[in-house]
Amino acid sequence: MKRAPSIFVFGLLACSPLLNSSASADEPTFTRKEDVVYGRKYGTALTMDVFTPKSNANGAGIVFAVSGGFRSSHEAINPMYIRPLLDRGYTVFAVVHGSQPRFTVPEIIQDMNRAVRFIRYHAKDYGIDKARIGITGASAGGHLSLMLGTAGSLGDPSAKDPVDRESSRVQAVACFFPPADLLNYGQAGKEMLRATDHGKAFRPAFDYHELDKDSNVWVQITDTERLREITRQISPITHVSADDPPTLIIHGDADVLVPIQQSEIFVKKMKSVGVETKLVVKKGAGHGWMGIERETALLGDWFDQYLNKPTADKPAP
After folding, report:
1. Which of 10-14, 36-40, 51-55, 118-122 has the lowest mean pLDDT?
2. CA 132, 134, 138: angle at the middle one, nearest 5?
3. Burial class (CB in 10 A: 0-12, 13-18, 19+), 300
4. Fold (topology level) of 9-306
5. Alpha-carbon distance 207 to 13, whole Å?
6. What is the Cα–Cα distance from 186 to 177, expressed in whole angstroms?
7. What Å distances lie between residue 275 and 39, 83, 177, 272, CA to CA?
8. Would you kindly state where each structural domain of the chain is located, as residue ranges?
9. DSSP string of the chain?
10. Mean pLDDT, range 279-303, rounded to an integer
């Protein structure tokens, strides 16, 4: 029987009885600073929670993209998902981005870039090495992780805000079942250009508008070539290059929401340019599975391997 897919993996994790029961008896080994403002847009604060190990901090930072279906909220932050990383000594930054239905994917990507620049600018304040930052997430959060890995950029040295002068590049990526190529989604040539090409729950994230200069009214973008270019820009596979960071993906081979083909073609493209990349296939698993938090150990192993030593930022694309 085909299981109904759910892209809201972090909501599922937050409700897991296993997670909620196992954490309560343990003495916290980390501190949590909530609602740190990393940016503002349209009068709205963009926030993150900062989790810091109490005694064994290793000087590296992990960005956790809090995103399911490109929805994001403070309530969706689940410490149990990231606890294995905290236990290894990583400082974890749980980033809440501007959420759909108000904001679209290109705008959300901008938020994630801003978050990484903010973290790097304040690296000393958080006790981390600015050259040792990784990123993780699942589904939409995995997509954003790949976007930062392949399309993050150096900062603007002339920017008025010093945060925007920092790089948004990361040094390692490890994520779950990410959409990677929206121009070849599930099969070659299947394009996800329009909001209606996506499931109803996700359409607002792909409903692109622009300000018409003559009428000063926001109008929907309907031109096919414009939509194809936007889709290309938000597809991580488009930006793959030889100096991308090492990337780990974990994906179920029974996923009907984000086909495993997405990870397969992305990994193939990364390997073709010589980037260290690995795909772990979860046999029989769909879009998220009970006990997924246990797979965080694999993410930790990956980060241990590639964030152990400082590495240089990728040059500007």
Report:
1. 10-14
2. 175
3. buried
4. Rossmann fold (3.40.50)
5. 28
6. 13
7. 32, 28, 19, 8
8. 9-306
9. -PPPP-S-HHHHHHT-HHHHHHHHTSPP-EEEEEEEEEEEETTEEEEEEEEEESS---S-EEEEEE-BTTB--GGG--HHHHHHHHHTT-EEEEEEPPPTTTS-HHHHHHHHHHHHHHHHHTHHHHT--TT-EEEE-BTHHHHHHHHHHHH-----TT-SSGGGGS----SEEEEES----TTSSSSTT----SGGGS-GGGGGGG--EEEETTTTEEEE---HHHHHHHHHHT-GGGG--TTPPPEEEEEETT-SSS-HHHHHHHHHHHHHTT--EEEEEETT--SS-TTGGGGHHHHHHHHHHHSSS--PPPPP-
10. 92
- Residue pointed to by tokens 């990994």: 267
Q: What is the identity of the amino acid at 24?
A: S
Residue type, 281: V
Please count the residues of the chain: 317
Question: What is the token pair recorded at 239?
Answer: 């930006």
Strands 44-53 and 61-66, sheet pairing: unpaired
Give residue 40's identity as a one-letter amino acid code: R
Rounded CA-CA distance 20/24 in Å is 7
Contact indicator for 119, 95 with CB cutoff of 8 Å: no
Question: Tens digits of per-residue pLDDT, 201-216?
Answer: 999 999 999 998 889 9
> What pLDDT sits at residue 28?
82
d(Cα 34, Cα 76) in Å, to the nearest integer?
13
For 248, the token pair is 């780990």
Choose among 164, 169, 91, 90: nearest CA to 126. Answer: 91
CA angle 150, 245, 208 (to 5 degrees): 20
**CA separation for the pair 144, 137 (Å, rounded):** 8
